[in-house]
Amino acid sequence: MKDIVVYGLGGLGRKIAKELKDLTKRADNYSQWYNELVIKADLAEQSAVRGCMVIKPYGYAIWEKMQHQLDTMFKDTGVQNAYFPLLIPKSFLSKEADHVEGFAKECAVVTHYRLKNAEDGSGVVVDPAAKLEEELIIRPTSETIIWNTYKNWIHSYRDLPILCNQWANVFRWEMRTRLFLRTAEFLWQEGHTAHATKEEAEAKAIEMLNVYADFAEKYMAVPVVKGVKTANERFAGALDTYTIEAMMQDGKALQSGTSHFLGQNFAKAFDVKFINKENKLDYVWATSWGVSTRLMGALIMTHSDDNGLVLPPKLAPIQVVIVPIYRSQEQLDTINAKVAPIVENLKKQGISVKYDNADNKRPGFKFADYELKGVPVRLVLGARDIENGTIEVMRRDTLEKETVSIEGIEGYVEKLLDDIQNNIYTKALNHRLEMTTKVDTWEDFKTQIEKGGFILAHWDGTTETEEKIKEETKATIRCIPLDGEEEEGKCIYTGKPSKRRVIFARNY
Q1: Whole-model pTM?
Q2: CATH number, residue 213
Q3: In this structure, are 375 and 404 located in the same domain?
């Protein structure tokens, strides 16, 4: 890692800029690198509440861009946004057996509705007289409260389909947390749809999976494998769970989005019936699907390097930063005048640009800071550049610098942003391909899993075998790939017949 020299700041300036980028190297400790980067890049920090995080403005700006794009894509499929209560009556969770079993250990429970001053003046205490008749659960997910609501909305096939999504926070009591990847409270979206037929619901579940995959690849520049979860790994209360799985730089998998075909389970639990086209009473068919702030973790771990964040241009809050180099107010005035139309033209092209001519930080510090924060393109303009009709351009993904003509810089930058977006996707895809291996024996499997990556191997289809492999190697079946071909083989663990390979990996 190169040192950043901050001209004019002396030893202190050099120290600040160097510390800014003084990250643990990925090769030395990938986990520590990630934790440091999240904090140093001003994305998030630990909160006073154990297991919860504060998402800082720069981190939230990235999430907002994700949210905006996903929201547009959802609405293009006919989905509308709504909002449902944060608190769920405890009895609701009892109605769907698999669902309550899946979430019971993670639920936070509200038992009282009032505090009072302690008699000894020590502060406030829970008022024992204010105990709720029925405890309320802070939502770990909203299927139960939503299906209780849908019962009032649905009477006939003419009321269907219902295509609802909500952007919300949820709470799942986590003991081992990591910023963005696993926190007790997190932000997400959860779609909940109701349909007249099984076929329509299954099609919707797959449609939303494809939306997630398109978003991951086209906007996050993260290649994913689409597949279906095993019975052991599927969502509590679902008949099928579809997933997109991404590979991080350390070879571990990250589940990056799921879409669930719920069948009629929740409709039966909440007695949601409708008169179908044959004038018969039937239960409604359902899906649910969601992605969360975990996507932030995927974004960071897929692309970033030892110098800091590397952001795909389509999701970067600042796509272009312009930094002036000057020695006098007169020079700055000249540069300001030159930069103004460039900024205006870039904005007209839909490019987010920041002109940082603040005089409280030196150029070297700014370079280090924007590099750390993953700004895709940096433009530097000094008095000599103006004389020569040139401007310095640096792309964050490769750290390559070049001096180009200032004339037509807007078109140059537009093409460069597209090139960066494509380049980081290709780099991530090549990494996944290099780290994906076919394995046919148990010994080879145990050797390969220590190297990381995705392992394509045969499995006998039983939960028992799946659990034993996980117990002995910490590897889980990430998914049964949707595009996987049928292939006769033998289970790596039991030797029993198998008709297709599944993806094994260690995961976050």
Answers
A1: 0.94
A2: 3.30.930.10
A3: yes
Residue 308 lies in a domain: no
355 with 276, same domain: the answer is no
> Is residue 252's pLDDT more than 80?
yes
The CATH number linked to 465 is 3.30.110.30
User: For the purposes of burial, counting CB atoms within 10 Å of the CB of 41, is it exposed (0-12), middle (13-18) or buried (19 or more)?
Assistant: buried
Tokens of 237: 């209360």
Q: Identify which of 404, 397, 391, 390 has the alpha carbon closest to the alpha carbon of residue 418.
A: 397
Count of structural domains, the chain: 3
Stretch 131-135: mean pLDDT, rounded? 97
Place of tokens 């007169």: 330
CATH of the domain at 413: 3.40.50.800
Give residue 98's pLDDT: 85
Is residue 94 within 8 A of residue 237, CB to CB? The reply is no
Closest to 349 (Cα-Cα) out of 411, 279, 401? 411
Digit-coded pLDDT (tens) for 164-175: 999 999 999 987
Q: Is the pLDDT of residue 1 over 80?
A: no
b (16+ CB within 10 A) / e for 257-284: bbbbbbbbbbbebbebbbeeeeeeebbb
For residue 231, give the amino acid letter: A
What mean pLDDT is reported for the chain?
95
Q: Rounded mean pLDDT of 134-142?
A: 96
Q: Which of 414, 431, 448 is the last residue of a domain?
A: 431
Which residue segment(s) compose the domain that 160 sits in? 54-87+141-302
173 and 253 in a common domain: yes
pLDDT confidence tier of residue 20, bands split at 50, 70 and 90: low
Angle (CA) 175-180-184 rounded to 5° is 35
What residues contact residue 199 under an 8 Å CB cut-off, 6+ apart?
Answer: none
- Reply yes or no on whether the pLDDT at 495 is more than 50: yes
Euclidean distance between CA atoms 412 and 315, whole angstroms: 19
Dist CA 287 CA 206 (whole Å): 10
What are the Cα distances from residue 175, in Å, to 47, 99, 348?
15, 21, 48
Closest Cα partner for 353 from 375, 325, 386? 375
pLDDT at residue 330 greater than cutoff 70: yes
**For 494-499, what is the mean pLDDT?**
97
Give me 441's structure tokens.
Answer: 């024996």
Q: Are residues 286 and 149 in the same domain?
A: yes
CA angle 158, 275, 194 (to 5 degrees): 60
Instruction: Identify whether residues 205 and 164 lie together within a single domain.
Output: yes
**How many residues does this entry show for the chain?**
508
- Tens-digit pLDDT profile for residues 46-76: 999 999 999 999 999 999 999 999 999 999 9
State phi, psi for 169 to the nearest 5 degrees. -105, 150
Q: Measured between alpha carbons, how far is 14 from 298 in angstroms, rounded to an integer?
A: 32
